Amino acid sequence: MGNTDSKLRFRKAVIQLTTSTQPVEATDDAFWDQFWADTATSIQDVFTLVPAAEIRAVREESPSNLATLCYKAVEKLVQGAESGCPSEKEKQIALNCCRLLSRILPYIFEDPDWRGFFWSTVPGNEEGGGGGGGDDDDDDSRPLAESLLLAIADLLFCPDFTVQSHKKSGPDSAEDMQSLDSCEYIWEAGVGFAQSPPLNYVHDINRMELLKLLLTCFSEAMYLAPSSDKNILNPWVTFFCSTDNRHALPLFTSLLNVVCAYDPVGYGIPYNHLLFSDHREQLVEQAAQVLIVTLDHDGGVATRVCVCPDNLFVNYLSRIHREEDFHFVLKGLARLLSNPLVQTYLPNSSKRIQFHQELLVLFWKLCDFNKKFLFYVLKSSDVLDILVPILYYLNDARADQSRVGLMHIGVFILLLLSGERNFGVRLNKPYALRVPMDVPVFTGTHADLLIVIFHKIITGGHQRLQPLFDCLLTVIVNVSPYLKSLSMVAASKLLHLLEAFSTTWFLFSAVQNHHLVFFLLEVFNNIIQYQFDGNFNLVYSIIRKRNVFHQLANLPSDPFSIQKALQRKKKSPSAVSRTSSQEGVSMEGSRPAIPAEPGTLKTSLAATPGIENLTEKSQVSEDGTMVALQEAHPSQPPPDHSAIAGASDTETRLSSASSAACWSPTSEWVLSWKSKLPLQTIMRLLQVLVPQVEKICIDKGLTDESEILKFLQHGTLVGLLPVPHPILIRKYQASAGTGMWFRTYMWGVVYLRNVDPPIWYDTDVKLFEIQRI
């Protein structure tokens, strides 16, 4: 009954605040204390009892009352941070203020006139500045935002509230918050900390509430329209991750360790997650979200060097270097990402986590900011423990329009990894896992799995994935010089893609479509020149499909043929037909990729930069080192402008349909790139091997392909092929465009994942649009 009374009192206070036409004095503690001192309201209650319409009404009609409410709530948090919340009542007040501010802040951010409010100083304020850096004079003139952020940081290391006290309990043994060394109170063992404190679910819940408020503070970014200006930094994140926050290092370490140490399997007891509520999972999720948001500080390539030291979280992440720390982080991320793939004999016996998108962004940030970590990931087969889950997610999400962002982040990670030689080498490891995936059964390597799934995405995904085709094929081009032996299934998939992309109607229907053919020809050339001996399956597939290469060499370029091809396009169902690709039987236990349920919410994304803006070209020299290329190399697919004359802005990657509306192919345009098709190596291979294969078939009366494969396996083309071309690698390169893409994607994920309570729902978000499928 008491709980109902306190909700009633809280609701009365809200009504009083929203209906009062006169400003309520800041000194009227009896009035303001109704919001936090005498209530036991959960965060869900606060969201119900403080409706959006009423917050907006106070903002417009009684702005001074809203300002005082915010100021008083921050003041209470600062007092709690200074005293250490020794009593239960003080702990409850701190949590109530947290919940109230989490509710109100988005409505402050959505109004441009209010956005500067938290960055102003409150005249004659009495609050201190929390236990952060700086002396008292500074504290008196601190902007409200800084006082709030420092109080949250202090409270995240508050003994008996969010961390285990190191002192014996008793009224005289309360720890002094100002002298407390929070590095001794890191939440979990792992990077830079050896002790694992006992699990305490009350501490976990309190940390969660504070992290939720912190995330809400950082979310001002959602209310600013997308901008490619790399100098725009989030002031909340910038201050929180600066030297003003004395807890920056232990908090960064706590967040990273809590995420990477989490094991959702249920400590070895099947169905454990059905018996107990797992508060740690919610904390891990919130920690991952706070981490990726604080690390959104790259400012683009131009300012990367000078920006990092300003953001201590980025600085600490980039300085992790011990092998045991890398091992802990990589194993933790791989364990969590592999969670949906863990097959047990008891269905649903282990818990399935939902925060894989946050984990992928975190992995991306680790590789992007810490090159030593990237090299550690690639120096052993451990990288495959990250690759297989990513391929699983890509395959699972390919038909679901609400998961386009997941598709992009997965492909971007593989693009980043494929720029390193070791990734291609690791792909030769046999694939023995039998994770149920909706792809044909095959026996082969991880490279085969990658190619088969990429083929599935291109032929069986939805239309909005077309801008990713360049990226998918670039990954295959990058690894192709190192692939020792493709399976027959993977080889036939590559040939099917070439067949589909080299039809005249597809080549002529959009200004950039011929790039896909160039990429595939480069894959075949790399394998023939550098890995011929083990790739008899691919050579056999090329011989079988030799007509495709002859047709490309004799591609018509006269206006009549171009028009005829385009008329054929109107009758064709889709860009890449699934027919003529023998799909084979899918793996046992797999389910097909399914579209999103109607009504599913999704957030819009910034435009994906074109592959020429996503990558920079490097040439591999004879000793294996890479040299960046300034000029386009003749053997590479032309983003050179002679080949894409007439292209509009490639940055926005116009889809086939829209580019066709404002552009039409000409004979000159076709000839400009047809003359550069790198067909010499393949034509020479066909010229030498086709007569030999035909002769064997006639002489021995062969109809069995295994005999032909045996012949090809022992054949050689030494001295018969053109001089090997240099290996070209297209390495991922950060830009303002990719920075903006990651920001919109990351905040879109945070927006959609925080539904209980729905912190930002129905507020005027500007960074992206919220759409229904």
From TrEMBL:
Pfam name, any one: Hid1
CC per GO annotation: Golgi medial cisterna; Golgi trans cisterna; membrane
InterPro entries the record matches: Hid-1/Ecm30
Comp. bias intervals (Polar residues): 574-584
Location of region: Disordered: 568-601, 631-650
Top-level lineage group: Eukaryota
PANTHER family assigned: PROTEIN HID1
Protein name (database record): Protein HID1
Species the sequence originates in: Denticeps clupeoides
